[in-house]
Amino acid sequence: MFFKSKQVVGLDIGSTSVKVVGLKSTKKDEYELQYLGLENLSPDTIVDGAIMDKLPVAEAINRIFNSQGIKNNHVATSISGHSVIVKKINLPAQSPEELAESIMWEAEQYIPFDISDVNLDYEILKTIPGTGTIEVLLVAVKKEKIADHVSVINLAGKSPSIVDVDAFDLLNSYVHNYQPTGHTVTALLNIGASIANLCIAKGSELLFTRDISVGGNQYTDFLQKGLGLSYEEAEKIKRGDTSGGVDEAEVNRIIDSVSEIIELEIQKTLDFFKATTTTDRIDKMILSGGAARAKGLMEHLSQKFEVPVEVFNSFKRISYNPQKFDSSFINEISPRVAIAVGLAMRNMEDK
Asked: Which CATH number applies to 1-83+143-179+317-351?
């Protein structure tokens, strides 16, 4: 699944927009922002994570590269959704060489797809003392999902040097920007248009990740139907602009009803996490993605899960030239590019 390149540009292809981030390593574990761009896509271009029309996506990629003056055509991109399986599994202790020979057979027990239909990767995380077992991170992605992303990137004339998983790049971005230590358990919730990535970390260690079929599109859909609005009008209201003479009480009722749907799905996933791991708590939650600033969502989640909730700052520890990048734009776009920032960090020689 992974292809290496020393210097890459982070490219996040979402359901409603394409985000591009380029970073320059200034010294060990420090970065400066070089490129930052976002292009919106029409609502029917990508549906439920599937690219329905590749040309507009390729054109959006090229518009960003051209406007930012990006000459490097090597990109890192990532994938999420039901085509992606990430599992921590325990296997009998064995050498890396032995595991390489047996991993396909082992994986068949945990992957709900035909093993011939997926690209498989894995990493030995640790040996569990006194048990004779090792903990292995197993990742499987449907080949057709990878082919979709690769083909649209090739159509744009770019080279897909790394194909990763959204949750890992969300974690990369979090670890770099927040420098977590100790035993604080943080739920990273990246709410895109149609899919939410939930990634739970203890300090900087990944405990659990799962993609949930909820997203910001539900706010837009409910507002359109409930108030008879266009897509564009509903999008503005979702972000808190009620200047169009709509009934604010009805807007709040609709938005609250969607927030409750999102909360329910998150609750189910957190219940599963707590039932299948030794950790039974969440200490805080950090929101990213296009719906991170949906009206009232942060307050809803904080009240529901009784934890502090904040909006993800993708540039908390990344410097930028204020003459090149407007600080208000940086602040506005910050939660939307958490994954793209994590991808841009993959231009080092790590896997």
From this structure: 3.30.420.40
Q: Does the fold of domain 180-312 match that of domain 1-83+143-179+317-351?
A: yes
CB 342 within 8 A of CB 10: yes
Domain covering 84-140 assigned CATH 3.30.9.10 in the classification = no
Is 294 a residue whose pLDDT tops 50?
A: yes
> What's the pLDDT score for residue 237?
85
Tokens of residue 200, six digits: 């739970």
Structure tokens at 172: 């990369």
Q: What is the pLDDT of residues 14-40, one digit of tens each?
A: 989 999 999 998 877 799 999 999 999
CATH topology of domain 180-312: Nucleotidyltransferase; domain 5 (3.30.420)
Of 257, 311, 247, 263, the C-alpha closest to 284 is 311
Count CB atoms within 10 A of the CB of residue 70: 19
Residue 105's CB is within 10 A of a number of other CB atoms, namely 9
Handedness of CA 297, 314, 83, 104 (dihedral sign): negative
- The length of the chain is 351
Q: What is the pLDDT of residue 243?
A: 66
Other beta carbons within 10 angstroms of residue 31's beta carbon come to: 23
